[in-house]
Design brief:
By secondary structure, the protein is an alpha/beta fold. The protein is built from nine helices and 16 strands.
Length: about 350
Amino acid sequence: LPSGPGHALIEQWNPVGLVGIITAFNFPVAVYGWNSAIAMICGNACLWKGAPTTSLISVAVTKIIAKVLEDNKVPGAICSLVCGGADIGTAMARDERMDLLSFTGSTKVGKQVALMVQERFGRSLLELGGNNAIIVFEDADLNLVIPSALFAAVGTAGQRCTTARRLFLHESVHDEVVSKLAKAYAQVRIGDPWDSDTLYGPLHTKEAVKMFLDAVEQAKQQGGSVVYGGKVINRPGNYVEPTIVTGLPHNAPIVHTETFAPILYVLKFKEEEEVFAWNNEVKQGLSSSIFTKDLGRIFRWLGPKGSDCGIVNVNIPTSGAEIGGAFGGEKHTGGGRESGSDSWKLYMRRST
């Protein structure tokens, strides 16, 4: 860096050392993949704790990585694995040998992890929940809106952090979109995830089914109408119907609650300013989308008075991750960024 005569000013980046990685059930390979890759590129070793319900995947992936490392004369233990429940996660969060702890999971657990890591002045990277909204304006291309909303709300049975949970429709297109979306929902092929023709599979656990039913009941009690779905499917496994709920106010308690299930709350709006505010009024700030052809509105959406989310989309759905860009969110989503132009800095320490 520029400095005075006879004086050198250097910024040196070094590995942090050991990166702990705690991942969730819904993407049991991908999240560890991008965390471990960037950690190793930055010169770190990794200790992974996958979800207790996907431990066989964690074991298989760890063995594959170890073989690749050993084939290249590098110790396989650079990427080590520990299996277990919350007790193991707590131990990782509290252990001062853990130089960085990357946690992907719910906001509730993420807050506990953050407090434990902060108590020892450690470093954490948090990828937590999302209560993501799609906003459809009167000039939107509905042929684009319907499949986009369907995929964002129903894909992986609503079990993504970027799943669309709120759909704001301009009053002039509300009824048409709801009608078309319900017809699209009826065409979703439900079945065994091993079948290549299946578009929609089960929820992860029986507890998730109970949360789904509780949320549907709360939505009804708070004034919502179930226009599609809302029930458990009578077949082996944790299958529930993809569900559309209309008629709720934008600030209904259940609308502000992230339920990790395929429930889409459809809400009506009139003005741009109000709907931008409604997008931002939830505690999470992960992903958001608008559908419009108005360039001025697009730039307002991207600007300081637009979406307050970490991911701000235009004419594409909320779900999915562009691994070339910074992935993560604001507020109760945790503020962490995995991938993107400068995410590597969190996996290193800087000396000047």
